[in-house]
Amino acid sequence: MQKINIGLIGFGTVGTGVVKVLNENAKIIQDRLGAEIVLKKIADKDIEKDRGVPVDRGILTTDAFDIINDPDISVVIELVGGIEPAKKFILKSLENKKSVVTANKALLATHGEEIFNCAVKNDVDIGFEASVGGGIPIIKSMKEGLAANRINSIYGIINGTANYILSKMTNEGGKFEDVLKKAQEKGYAEKDPTYDVEGIDTAHKLAILINLAYGTNIKLDDIYIEGITRIAPLDIKFAKEFGYRIKLLAIAKEENNRIEARVHPTMIPAHHPLANVDGVYNAIHINGNAVGSVMFYGRGAGMMPTASAVTADVIDICRNMRHVPAGSPIKDFGDKFKQGMGIKTRVSPLSYLPSEIKKVEINNMESLEMPYYIRFSVIDKPGVLSKISGILGSHNISISSVVQKDRKVGGAVPLVIVTHDAKEKEMRQAISEIDSLDIILDKTVHLRIEENIGAGE
Amino acid sequence: MQKINIGLIGFGTVGTGVVKVLNENAKIIQDRLGAEIVLKKIADKDIEKDRGVPVDRGILTTDAFDIINDPDISVVIELVGGIEPAKKFILKSLENKKSVVTANKALLATHGEEIFNCAVKNDVDIGFEASVGGGIPIIKSMKEGLAANRINSIYGIINGTANYILSKMTNEGGKFEDVLKKAQEKGYAEKDPTYDVEGIDTAHKLAILINLAYGTNIKLDDIYIEGITRIAPLDIKFAKEFGYRIKLLAIAKEENNRIEARVHPTMIPAHHPLANVDGVYNAIHINGNAVGSVMFYGRGAGMMPTASAVTADVIDICRNMRHVPAGSPIKDFGDKFKQGMGIKTRVSPLSYLPSEIKKVEINNMESLEMPYYIRFSVIDKPGVLSKISGILGSHNISISSVVQKDRKVGGAVPLVIVTHDAKEKEMRQAISEIDSLDIILDKTVHLRIEENIGAGE
Predict the structure, then answer these.
(1) Counting beta carbons within 10 angstroms of the beta carbon of residue A98, is it exposed (0 to 12), middle (13 to 18) or buried (19 or more)?
(2) Which of A28, A327, A340 sits opposite B326 (nearest CB)?
(3) B249 to each of A222, A252, B123, B188, B224, how far by Cα in Å?
(4) Which of the residues of A are catalytic?
(5) CB neighbourhood size of B194 (10 A)
(6) How big is the A-B interface in CB pairs under 8 Å?
(7) pTM for the model
(8) Which of A24, A134, A125 is nearest to A74 (CA)?
(9) First-to-last C-alpha distance (Å) of chain B
(10) Residue A335: pLDDT above 50?
(11) Residue A445 is part of which domain span?
């Protein structure tokens, strides 16, 4: 049986998971692939630590270049994370004609163009299934399963930490700060949770999904980003009363060759499948012009789910490598299987041919129009609603419903307004004006509403 | 640009959808594939009928063999449906070294082994994404995206008609017969709904999923099949009271190299994501030993979703065909692109190498153990519960809860019992004994409960 040598850089949680999957599922992987995947070397700064998986100590090295420069290794798995030295490791591997598998969403979201171009130039593959949605095969589905579709919209819950916090606040109550603290104690949130709760990690993943959907290379700066730190228990309660749930969503929509790209806490109808994606689960809802609405759901992180995606990419690349074309004089690699032979770049990194990657126009956030939920903290006296609705009216914002309940919070009373479609720009101006009134006791909270997810069906 | 000629046999609803997708999304498909897909011929018995899509009349033929025997056609799409002549068309195409794409679940579930072997023997591909779950890329996900996993379980809502009827009964009330009638009027159910409501179509699809998951070739007879015709509004109501929903599920589980394979109406916890899959939507919930639980959701049928899957398969096959391996003397097909070149069978029909396809042991339905919901129609008099629970006890069936409500239905009162885990065989014997008592006024209904879908997490 053919043997294909691979190397692993980064022996952390996910790296350990990959070793586990390759060990425990070796037989089933071989039965499906028709070749043996041999983990020839593992590089990590710390090769003394016991990772809890059986590994021949002889394959461990502290020097990633022992893998990158090994002519007998065909596939390099990069699980170092962060920008450098991960970027250097990947580019050097590609230049050495090795295919690369990575879970590094931050790197791909910020330097994807350079990395993909390098892979194409060197006629090797780059797999990044694990970069979005953990074990959910969303990247492959977008590149291949939905390849016949023009993508109308993408709505994703793609950060498990933020979703865990919002789910807890929704199902069990509690303030953001307290729930975050508990999540940190349970290991569901990092010590520094900024990337997760401020929406940055979600934006990294959205950039990757947008680039796949539209064959482009948008930058992180092209995405409007807002986190969940302002969400108060009151907002969660009002959302429920209005028949909504609050989720941190990654949103992309295309219309007339212009796209929207944004990450923010969003009110969505409580009956929508996305509204019931709870805890650390992820889900990506896609509407394509042929397929209609599809949704992919699963664990968005963790050792084994992420390892499942990394290993699927390795199998995919190996399936390409072990094949020769019909009509080729090379009938069978057999024992003479040479590392690195077989086909490469069967599917381009972003699904689109490199020559078809184009710049897309992105709609400015301020130009968007949608319904809003606005919660004002007002003094409880007559005339307040009239003043506020007057200012909203002067900005062409019309009101769909108003709720004022006697729930005093620090002397203030919440006044909640749900609007019809309004312009983001007008909304910001109106709130700024209203917040300068002396009837307003605390900063106004406004949340965007997505009423028709996957509409057009 | 390379051109790849394809032929379409069967110009019905889905065939028309394929023509629409190839027309409307031609540019985006070309940008992704790097080749032009040319629909060279369409065969149908009726070539006079206006299908509502622009088609050059010159490509229409009434003879499928005009396509099957055309040396310039590389890929044949079979959308005739049924067993014959679809089977003959597929086998002849494969023998003529053409790759085939089909949506024909009934054929694959009953003659899959012969068709897959024929594809392998002739070194061509067979795509059948459209055979399960409409546009949901479930086949590709199982063959590739989850290829690193041992599959622990599959739970599928994979018949839109049955799910539509059960959803309507759950959300709006009504008897099975009345809701079916409305579904037929709306075109959601066939005139003869047997395949859909009796679970046969679901079993066809389950056979395909099982063969993919476990690398085997089970027969339809290996699957226990029970439809939804016995479900009464009372059962729907009681299910809700117990915190369940009733869904027609396709279920497969593996343990110690033995599998369960069954289709029946099932009570599942109301909070489970599958419980909220309503209307004509499909969903497939898979638990893999690495990925944990993942769920795929979307429209399970219809012109455009199914066409999305068919076209994805065509693109997939074309992506194989247009490639030459690194190191091959054939550098670029260029203008000399020859139909049928490129690689084939990059992924085996069932993902597993043909040499690894094995017989699996299937657990007899009677040997299974699970909790049950049982609804007895009893005479309302003292001692009834004692008699029934006595017989259940003599069969080692222990009771978890009992509900007897004063809801007279034709003189009878419903007595509902939910059991702890019990053996199917004992359950059948107990019910048979109980049904012969004179306190029983109507046939007892029993439904299986799946409490821990995707358990082990």
Answers:
(1) buried
(2) A340
(3) 44, 33, 35, 18, 12
(4) 205
(5) 12
(6) 266
(7) 0.95
(8) A125
(9) 49
(10) no
(11) 366-449
B34 contact A CB<8A: yes
Nearest alpha carbon to residue A290 among B16, B431, B276, B324: B16
Q: Is the domain of B88 the same as that of B113? A: yes
**For B267, phi and psi rounded to 5 degrees?**
-90, 125
Which residues are CB-neighbours of B199 under 8 A, at least 6 positions away? B159, B162, B225, B226, B227, B228, B248, B263, B264
Closest to A350 in 3D by CA, of A42, A167, A112:
A112
Q: A291, B299: Cβ pair inside 8 Å?
A: yes
Using an 8 Å CB-CB cutoff, list chain B residues near A345: 323
Write out chain A residues lying below 8 Å of B304, CB-based.
289-292
Query: Same domain, yes or no, for B256 and B143?
Result: yes
Look at chain A and report how many structural domains it folds into: 3
CATH number for the domain that contains residue B215: 3.30.360.10
Q: Which residue in A367, A347, A362 sits closest to A421, CA to CA?
A: A367
Per-residue pLDDT tens digits for A351-385: 999 999 999 999 999 999 999 999 999 998 889 99
B284 and B331 in a common domain: no
Residue B359 lies in a domain: no
Using the Cα atoms of residue A418, residue A421, residue A424 and residue A429 in order, give the sign of their dihedral. negative
- Tens of pLDDT, residues B360-400: 999 999 999 999 999 999 998 889 999 999 999 999 999 99
Q: b/e map of A393-429 (b: 16 or more CB within 10 Å)?
A: eebebebeeeeeeeeeeeebbbbbbbbeebbbebbeb
A129, A147, A289 member nearest B32 (Cβ): A147
- How many CB atoms are closer than 10 A to CB A271? 12
Tell me chain B's radius of gyration from C-alpha atoms. Answer: 25
Please say whether the beta carbons of A134 and A300 come within 8 A: yes
Give the E-state strand segments of A118-196 in sequence order: 126-127, 151-157
The string of pLDDT tens digits covering residues B118-140 is 999 998 999 999 999 999 999 99
Scanning every residue of chain A, which has its alpha carbon at the shortest distance from the alpha carbon of B342?
Answer: A325
Residue A398 C-alpha, separation from nearest chain B C-alpha, in angstroms? 33
Given A282, A299, A316, the domain boundary residue is A299
In this structure, the answer to whether residues A83 and A170 fall within a common structural domain is no
Go through chain A and tell me how many residues it has.
Answer: 457
Give A 122-161 residues with CB within 8 A of chain B. Answer: 123, 129, 134-137, 140-141, 144-150
- Confirm if B183 and B168 have CB atoms less than 8 A apart: yes
Task: Name which of B246, B269, B301 is nearest B132 in CA terms.
Answer: B301
Find residues 381-440 of chain B whose CB sits inside 8 Å of chain A. Answer: none
Complex prediction ipTM:
0.94
Put simply, whether A269 touches B (Cβ < 8 Å) is: no
Distance CA B320, CA B33 (A): 10
Q: Which two tokens stand for residue B20?
A: 């629409």
Tokens (6 digits) for B321: 């065909």
Average pLDDT, chain B: 93
Residue A203 near residue A250, CB atoms below 8 Å: yes
Q: Is B250:B259 a contact under the CB 8 Å cutoff? A: no
pLDDT of res. A11: 98
